[in-house]
Every structure is written in structure tokens, then in C-alpha cells.
Specification:
Layout: H1 22-88, H2 98-118, H3 125-194, E1 199-209, E2 215-217, E3 226-233, E4 242-251, E5 266-269, E6 275-278, E7 280-286, E8 292-298, E9 307-315, E10 318-327
Helix pairs in contact: 1-2, 1-3, 2-3
Length: 334
């Protein structure tokens, strides 16, 4: 049996349902979520990177600060050692040679340079490395400076010892010289005293001068025109030949010294330091070991007085002799 297909008898084919709007919304939502997650991940990653950078910077800063503080401490310690060396050697300033002076200048310059590097606010690693190198060099310089100072101090000690030895030798020589001078002085004093001349055999006469020129001795005061004083200088083998000074001091009966301008009266000092007035000074050309007789005539501006005229003779500050002449008052016919 044949079958025929009739339009109305076939079951229609089922048509595909068109997609809804939910799919693209889901895709969009998923994309936004992925983007949001990526953004968060980037933010978290960037934050971590920033934190690590900050931590790294803080570490670098801390390290740099620590290095700077350590270098500053080393500089202060080196400066303290240097200052102590300079203070302890201050008394050697006059002995410092050109090497010490040059080292002193170099050390001061390095200290300034190091301090400038450490004072930088943004000191770099290179700055700190240079400062560290300079501090090491500074310590070497300070050690060299200390060694040189110690050498100079050792030399000073040796020089001081030698100086003390020389001083001791000088003092001994001076002491010996003083002792010798004392002996010489004492000997000279003995010789000087021994060489003092001695006067003896005094003769004191009152002289009356006649109009005819003749002279007559007298003891009557009113008739005396002058006193003739004679005495001997005894022989002395200690006194050397040469000019000797003899001072003749005449005292009137009233005890006052007689001063006669025409005779050159003046003053002299005795060995006791007493100042005395002399009537006349005699310069004697003395010959060693020989006796000599001296004679002077004493005239005064006024008449001679009644009483004793005392005559003292001095040489070398010592009184070497004396004599007296008494003049009397004359009678009516004298």
C-alpha cells in the first residue's frame, strides 16, 4: 500500500531557540571580575614593591647612618688621641722640627676634610668610603706623629741628662774656681796687709822763720810759723816698688783736724770704712826693701794754738804711725 504524504499529516520540525541576553552579561561580569582581580593583584604587587623599596631605602639609610656614626666615632677617637699627644708634648714646642710642623698641618687638613664628608646630609657610599680611607690615613699620621714626638722626647731626655752633666761639671769647676779665688783673695789680702808700709822715728818741730831767712826751732806756740814733720818709711820686702800714697792727718789741740787748702787737704777711707779728713797727701816713689825718710812743712792760715798737736800717718787704709808735738804758752820775754 502506497503512502502519500499529505501536508497536514506531517509533524513540523522543532526550531532552535534564539540565545538570551544573559550570556553576554555573564561574559561581561566575568571579564570585570577578572579585571578587578588583576587590578587588586597589581595594587597588592605594587604595594609590596613600594614597601620593599622603602624598606631597602630605610636599610640603606640605616646602614649609611650607622657607617657615618661609626666613622664619626673613629674620627673623634683619633682627634682625642691627637689632642692628647699635642697636650703632652706642649712643653716641646721649642724643639719641634719641620717634620713635626708639616705633620701637624697635614693632620689638621685631613680632619677638616673628613668632617666635611661626614657632615653631608646626603652622604653617598663613595663619600663614606673616602672618609673611611682618610680616617685610616689619619690614624697612620697620628701614629707617625706620636713616634716622632717620642723620639724627640727621648732626644730631649738625653740632652737634659747631658745638660745636667755639663751643669754639674760647670758647677764643680765654678766651685773649684771660687775656692781658688777665695784662697787667692785671702792670699792677696795677706799680701796686701803685709805690704802696708810702716812709719817710725817721728820728729815734729816747731819752726820760727827769721826775716833773714834763717830758721829756729821753738816750742812756743805764738812763735811757731810752721810744723816740720819728719818720719821714716821702714823697709818692707813684701811691698812692691812703685808709687805709694801716704796720708798725713794733723789734729789741733782742740781735737779738730787741720785742713789747709794750699796743701790739698781732703778725705779718704780707712780699712774699717770710716771716712777721715787728711791734711796732706804724699806720693812716695817707694823702692822695695829700702828705708826712706819723708818730711813736710805744715803752715796754717792762723796762729798755732797752745797744746798738743797730734800727727797720724796712714797707708793702705791702715794707720802706720803717729807722733805728738806740744806747743806751750810763752812767757813775757819769750
Amino acid at each position: 500500500m502506497a503512502f502519500e504524504n499529505f501536508p497536514g499529516t506531517e509533524k513540523p520540525t522543532e526550531m532552535a531557540t534564539p540565545p538570551t541576553n544573559n550570556n553576554w552579561r555573564n561574559y561581561l561580569t566575568a571579564g570585570l571580575i577578572v579585571a578587578l582581580l588583576g587590578t587588586w593583584a597589581y595594587i597588592i604587587w605594587d604595594k609590596n614593591q613600594t614597601k620593599e623599596t622603602i624598606q631597602l631605602k630605610e636599610t640603606v639609610i640605616a646602614t649609611t647612618t650607622s657607617q657615618r656614626d661609626q666613622l664619626q666615632k673613629e674620627l673623634e677617637e683619633a682627634t682625642m688621641r691627637y689632642d692628647m699627644i699635642k697636650t703632652s708634648s706642649a712643653d716641646m714646642a721649642h724643639t719641634k722640627d719641620s717634620i713635626i710642623t708639616r705633620k701637624d698641618r697635614e693632620i689638621s687638613q685631613k680632619r677638616i676634610k673628613i668632617q666635611q664628608l661626614l657632615a653631608k646630609v646626603n652622604a653617598t657610599e663613595e663619600d663614606l668610603t673616602e672618609a673611611k680611607s682618610l680616617i685610616s690615613s689619619l690614624n697612620t699620621d697620628i701614629y707617625s706623629y706620636k713616634t716622632k714626638i717620642e723620639t724627640l722626647e727621648g732626644e730631649k731626655i738625653v740632652l737634659t741628662q747631658e745638660k745636667n752633666m755639663v751643669i754639674q761639671q760647670r758647677d764643680k769647676v765654678q766651685k773649684d774656681l771660687d775656692s781658688a779665688n777665695t784662697v787667692i783673695t785671702q792670699k792677696n789680702e795677706v799680701i796686701d796687709v803685709a805690704s802696708t808700709l810702716h812709719a817710725s822715728n817721728f820728729t815734729i818741730l816747731g819752726i820760727n822763720e827769721k826775716s833773714s831767712g834763717k830758721e829756729k826751732t821753738t816750742t812756743v806756740a805764738k812763735r811757731v810759723d810752721k810744723l816740720r814733720i819728719s818720719f821714716d818709711i821702714d823697709e818692707n820686702r813684701t811691698a812692691t816698688s812703685g808709687t805709694k800714697y801716704i796720708y798725713v792727718c794733723v789734729f789741733a789741740p782742740d781735737g779738730k783736724p787741720v785742713s789747709v787748702e794750699s796743701l790739698g787737704s781732703g778725705k779718704f777711707n780707712t780699712r774699717d770704712g770710716i771716712e777721715k779728713l787728711f791734711t796732706q797727701k804724699i806720693d812716695v816713689n817707694y823702692t822695695q826693701g829700702q828705708r826712706q825718710t819723708l818730711s813736710i812743712d805744715l803752715k796754717q792760715g792762723s796762729s798755732f794754738a797752745t797744746g798738743d798737736y797730734k800727727i797720724e800717718v796712714y797707708n793702705n787704709g791702715f794707720k802706720i804711725g803717729e807722733g805728738i808735738r806740744s806747743l806751750k804758752k810763752g812767757g813775757i820775754f819769750s
